């Protein structure tokens, strides 16, 4: 019988064990799904994460059995917020219960020191997996049995040894309900070390609040004693009340945040609300007393009614109804009342009362402290800056008491000082009266002697300076005369042989000779102008009068400029009030005046019209003619218009001016006009027009018969239109971009380089930048001073763009000073050549820069140095290579990733990318993609990440065979050798 019962018993026991194991697995799986995952990445800048809105489990009252060994929340109710009040408390909440939360740490937080912080107005006991880890207060079944303790700044250390779910349970009771909307608790978990440091820093700032409050209380008591000793000064009484209230408020704020007892916190909360109303009342009353000898009753009544309304409402809210705080718009009332007080302070300042500005500063500060720190009306302070906000509030509350104390002290000191000064004035008055008469007589005599000496000294100094200036002026005149005469001899030796050779030369030689003669004649004209200026200045230039038909003279010069005007697209018109106008004048000087003004008008007019008008001035008392030249050019700025006739002055001295000039022509024109008794004036509006007017007296002359003058027109240089077409010397030759606004110099350099290099040319800096970014040349030559964009900006722009940053840049300029060279180098220029330059020097500099760039390309093209170590490259090139590699690696496993796709990812055209890479590292885009893939494959094989076949597909090769062949060609050994090593 016994044997027959053994088998069923064992069978039932085994089944029970298996069912328990299965049930345990299901429970663990369910728990794992419900657990709150604690991740370090969620801690944020406050080093904690709040869990009050996680999935909590709640059990009302006590648990049956051993409470500490609880390891399951089966049968408990769910709860999604532990911060609850009377209206939203958990079901069956009677002031006590158990709360459970499953937590699970991620791998990074295993065995790391964490903390648990719990904020409540009750009592708590915390358990982890049934083991106690801390708590605050004494948990009880009734209000008499429990002891409520606050601990929002205390940290409970916590370690989670694995990533399994752990049960965090809290035995919690709150029968007091100090705040009706906060019966529950708030729980957070975070990094212990960082949070402890932040808590310590915040506590250190809060510890200053009692010090500020103590200082305010001491000031209040001190001024209260002043009032007792001197009752007539009621200002001390109101001041003492104001400062004492601020001190009491500071202590209440400190207790509100740091007291461990909820009831004391509640009392401190009420105190801060009551104090802010009383502080407002006392501050405004204090300012009224300071301003008015007799304070208006209606102001006091209105202020008192507002204060009593808020004070009464706070008593009812906190102690009668114990209701939630309501939006009472106190900030609006505070602003209105304090602005009225600030107006009173402004009246005191307006009356000129000394040091009253201190009161204005104090009142303004207390208003700002309230809105930006105490009430935080504009939400300036984030959660983690609350301690700093309270520190600012405490420190800022000291400003007005300090300002008032300083004001009262200065006023007291000033009163004593005034009494002392008046006493001394009375004592000294009689002595001064006796001494004044004698001093006055002596002073007048002394001053007369001093003035006489000063006049004599200044007269001697002025005479000496005038003599020196005259001597310097004479030396300068002699220098100009001598140097300009010395210039004429070498010019003669240049022009005459060149003119003789011009008859036999052909082709480029003929063109170059014409270029030499043209510029030599231009230089000779400048020399003659300098000689004329020197003659006028020294008074040696005379006037040679002869009969001249002035209308024919002007028409002759107009015709001489007509072809140049047509070339520029400008309409040139001449109008006179009579057909023939004979007068006695100096033909040579009038030629220079007309030619200078006409050439300036054509030089600074790009399109539009130039109108020349000649008429008799009938309003003048003597015979006078008026000549006007009006153009529609760029105009002259109003600030520079008065100086255009000054010698060597240029309205646009910048590097980007559109026309060259010396500042001699208009100065000479003015001297010649005034020498002949006339007057020249200018009027202009920038961007619209420029008008030059000459009013000159004349003597009428009889008509004379002259031989028809043969008009000889100089051959005008026709500038070659700039084009972006590449001029091919040899398809394999380096491509050079030439940027030069002077057409003759541009053509000369173009001829010099045309047989050696491929060339593209641009007429200004803006066009040059466009062509450089489009063609990616091997080298750039740019002038410094050009229209719109200077050579400095060209260099800076090309060097700052990753498409052209590798291109060498040579700057050509007439500025050879050190500062200009340094400025050019700072913009990234590789060469700086001063004008006039030697053609061989330019060619040598070009060849040297191209060879250096070629050596760098060869160095990088024969190795993977650019891929392994880019630190030797400039930062912009490092960024470019890094972006290239990142783009290729992001499409590493795509077999069809091509150079076109790489160019699109880099934001370039295929041609731009090809020229950039060939110029930088000497490799084409397709070759670069292959090298990056092979290098990445080598790294994978070296780290034994995968087999050779797998790596081949991972780096975008279509088959292992093609991968092995490419790998062997690049590295010199098969990929299997890397795996074997």
Description:
- With 981 residues, the protein is of the alpha+beta class.
- The protein folds into six domains: 1-34; 35-189, Galactose-binding domain-like (Jelly Rolls, Sandwich); 207-397; 543-700, Heat Shock Protein 90 (2-Layer Sandwich); 735-856, Rossmann fold, CATH 3.40.50; 865-980, Arc Repressor Mutant, subunit A, CATH 1.10.10.60.
- It contains 28 helices and 24 strands.
- Strands 1, 3, 4, 5, 7, 8 and 10 form a seven-stranded mixed β-sheet that branches. Strands 13-15-16-18-17 form a five-stranded mixed β-sheet. A five-stranded parallel β-sheet has the order 21-20-22-23-24, sandwiched between helices.
- Helix 8 packs antiparallel against helix 9.
- The chain is flat, with a radius of gyration of 48 Å.
- Residues 1-18, 20-29 and 706-728 have low confidence and may be disordered.
Outline the fold blueprint.
Layout: H1 2-34, E1 36-38, E2 48-50, E3 56-60, E4 77-79, E5 96-105, E6 114-120, E7 123-128, E8 131-136, E9 156-158, E10 166-173, E11 185-191, H2 192-206, H3 208-229, H4 235-258, H5 262-291, H6 297-320, H7 330-350, H8 357-374, H9 386-396, H10 399-502, H11 507-538, E12 546-549, H12 550-560, H13 562-568, E13 570-576, E14 582-585, H14 587-603, E15 608-616, E16 624-631, H15 665-675, E17 679-685, E18 689-697, E19 699-700, E20 735-739, H16 743-754, E21 758-762, H17 765-775, E22 779-783, H18 791-800, E23 809-813, H19 818-826, E24 831-834, H20 839-861, H21 865-868, H22 875-890, H23 899-906, H24 910-920, H25 925-942, H26 948-954, H27 960-971, H28 975-980
Parallel strand pairs: 1-5, 13-15, 20-21, 20-22, 22-23, 23-24
Antiparallel strand pairs: 2-11, 3-4, 3-5, 5-10, 6-9, 6-11, 7-8, 7-10, 12-14, 14-19, 15-16, 16-18, 17-18
Helix pairs in contact: 2-9, 3-4, 3-9, 4-5, 5-6, 5-7, 7-8, 8-9, 8-10, 10-11, 11-15, 12-14, 14-15, 17-18
InterPro entries: 7TMR_DISM_rcpt_extracell_dom1 (IPR011623), CheY-like_superfamily (IPR011006), HATPase_C_sf (IPR036890), HATPase_dom (IPR003594), His_kinase_dom (IPR005467), HisK_dim/P_dom (IPR003661), HisK_dim/P_sf (IPR036097), Homeodomain-like_sf (IPR009057)
Modified residues (4-aspartylphosphate): 783
Keywords: DNA-binding, Kinase, Membrane, Phosphoprotein, Signal, Transcription, Transcription regulation, Transferase, Transmembrane, Transmembrane helix
């Amino acid at each position: 019988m016994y044997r027959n019962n053994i088998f069923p018993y064992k069978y039932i026991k085994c089944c029970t064990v298996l069912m328990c194991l299965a049930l345990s697995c299901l429970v663990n799986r369910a728990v794992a799904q419900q657990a709150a995952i604690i991740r370090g990445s969620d801690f944020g800048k406050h080093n904690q994460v709040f869990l009050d809105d996680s999935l909590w489990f709640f059990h009302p009252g006590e648990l049956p059995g051993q409470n500490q060994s609880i390891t399951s929340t089966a049968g408990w109710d769910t709860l999604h917020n532990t911060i609850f009040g009377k209206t939203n408390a958990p079901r069956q909440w009677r002031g006590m219960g158990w709360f459970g939360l499953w937590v699970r740490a991620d791998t990074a937080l295993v065995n790391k020191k964490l903390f648990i912080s719990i904020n409540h107005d009750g009592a708590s006991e915390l358990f982890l997996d049934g083991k106690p880890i801390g708590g605050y207060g004494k948990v009880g079944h009734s209000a008499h049995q429990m002891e409520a303790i606050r601990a929002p700044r205390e940290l409970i250390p916590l370690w989670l040894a694995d990533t399994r779910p752990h049960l965090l349970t809290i035995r919690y009771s709150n029968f007091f309900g100090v705040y009706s909307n906060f019966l529950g608790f708030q729980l957070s978990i975070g990094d212990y070390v960082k949070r402890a440091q932040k808590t310590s820093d915040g506590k250190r700032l809060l510890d200053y609040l009692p010090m500020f409050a103590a200082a305010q209380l001491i000031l209040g008591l001190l001024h209260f004693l002043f009032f007792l000793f001197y009752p007539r000064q009621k200002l001390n009484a109101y001041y003492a009340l104001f400062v004492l209230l601020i001190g009491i408020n500071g202590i209440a704020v400190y207790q509100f945040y740091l007291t461990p007892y909820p009831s004391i916190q509640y009392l401190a909360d009420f105190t801060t609300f009551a104090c802010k109303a009383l502080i407002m009342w006392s501050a405004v009353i204090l300012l009224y007393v300071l301003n008015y000898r007799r304070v208006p009753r209606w102001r006091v009544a209105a202020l008192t009614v507002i204060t009593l309304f808020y004070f009464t409402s706070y008593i009812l809210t906190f102690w009668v109804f114990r209701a939630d705080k309501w939006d009472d718009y106190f900030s609006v009332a505070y602003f209105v009342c304090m602005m009225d007080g600030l107006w009173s302070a402004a009246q005191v300042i307006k009356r000129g009362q000394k040091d009253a500005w201190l009161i204005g500063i104090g009142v303004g500060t207390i208003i700002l402290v309230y809105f930006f720190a105490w009430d935080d009306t504009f939400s300036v302070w984030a959660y983690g800056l609350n301690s700093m906000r309270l520190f600012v509030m405490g420190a800022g509350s000291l400003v007005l008491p300090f300002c008032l104390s300083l004001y009262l002290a200065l006023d007291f000191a000033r009163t004593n000082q005034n009494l002392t000064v008046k006493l001394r004035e009375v004592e000294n008055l009689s002595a001064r009266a006796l001494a004044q008469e004698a001093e006055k007589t002596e002073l007048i005599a002394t001053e007369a002697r001093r003035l006489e000496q000063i006049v004599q000294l200044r007269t001697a100094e002025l005479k000496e300076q005038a003599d020196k200036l005259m001597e310097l002026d004479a030396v300068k005149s002699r220098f100009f005369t001598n140097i300009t005469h010395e210039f004429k001899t070498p010019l003669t030796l240049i022009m005459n042989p060149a003119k003789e050779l011009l008859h036999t030369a052909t082709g480029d030689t003929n063109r170059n000779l014409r270029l030499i003669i043209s510029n030599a004649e231009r230089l000779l004209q400048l020399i003659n102008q300098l000689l004329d200026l020197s003659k006028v200045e020294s008074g040696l230039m005379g006037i040679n009068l002869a009969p001249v038909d002035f209308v024919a003279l002007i028409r002759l010069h107009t015709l001489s400029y007509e072809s140049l005007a047509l070339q520029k697209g400008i309409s040139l018109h001449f109008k006179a009030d009579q057909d023939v106008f004979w007068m006695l004048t100096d033909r040579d000087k009038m030629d220079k005046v007309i030619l200078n003004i006409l050439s300036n008008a054509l030089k600074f007019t790009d399109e539009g019209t130039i109108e020349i008008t000649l008429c008799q001035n009938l309003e003048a008392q003597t015979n006078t003619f008026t000549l006007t030249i009006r153009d529609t050019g760029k105009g002259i700025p109003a600030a520079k218009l008065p100086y255009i006739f000054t010698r060597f002055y240029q309205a646009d001295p910048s590097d980007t001016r559109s026309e060259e000039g010396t500042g001699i022509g208009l100065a000479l024109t003015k001297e010649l006009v005034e020498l002949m008794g006339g007057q020249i004036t200018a009027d202009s509006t920038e961007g619209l027009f420029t008008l030059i007017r000459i009013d000159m007296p004349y003597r009428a002359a009889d008509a004379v018969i002259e031989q028809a003058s043969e008009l000889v027109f100089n051959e005008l240089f026709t500038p070659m239109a700039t084009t972006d077409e590449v001029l091919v010397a040899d398809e394999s030759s380096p491509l050079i971009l030439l940027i030069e606004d002077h057409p003759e110099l541009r053509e000369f350099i173009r001829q010099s380089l045309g047989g050696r290099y491929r060339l593209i040319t641009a007429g200004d800096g803006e066009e040059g930048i466009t062509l450089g970014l489009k063609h990616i040349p091997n080298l750039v030559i740019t002038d410094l001073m050009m229209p719109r964009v200077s050579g400095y900006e060209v260099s800076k722009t090309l060097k700052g763009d990753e498409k052209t940053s590798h291109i060498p840049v040579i700057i050509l300029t007439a500025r050879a000073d050190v500062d200009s060279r340094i400025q050019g180098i700072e913009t990234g220029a590789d060469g700086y050549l001063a004008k006039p330059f030697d053609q061989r020097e330019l060619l040598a500099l070009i060849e040297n820069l191209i060879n250096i760039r070629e050596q760098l390309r060869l160095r990088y093209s024969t190795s993977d140095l650019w891929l392994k170590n880019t630190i030797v490259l400039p930062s912009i090139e490092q960024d470019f290579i890094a972006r290239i590699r990142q783009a290729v690696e992001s499409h590493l496993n795509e077999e069809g990733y091509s150079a076109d796709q790489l160019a699109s990812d880099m934001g370039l055209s295929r041609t731009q990318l090809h020229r950039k890479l060939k110029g930088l590292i000497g490799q084409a885009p397709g070759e670069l993609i292959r090298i990056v893939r092979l290098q990445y494959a080598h790294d994978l094989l070296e780290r034994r990440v995968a087999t050779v076949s797998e790596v081949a597909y991972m780096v975008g090769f279509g088959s292992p065979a093609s991968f092995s062949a490419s790998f062997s060609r690049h590295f010199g050994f098969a990929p299997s050798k890397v795996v074997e090593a």
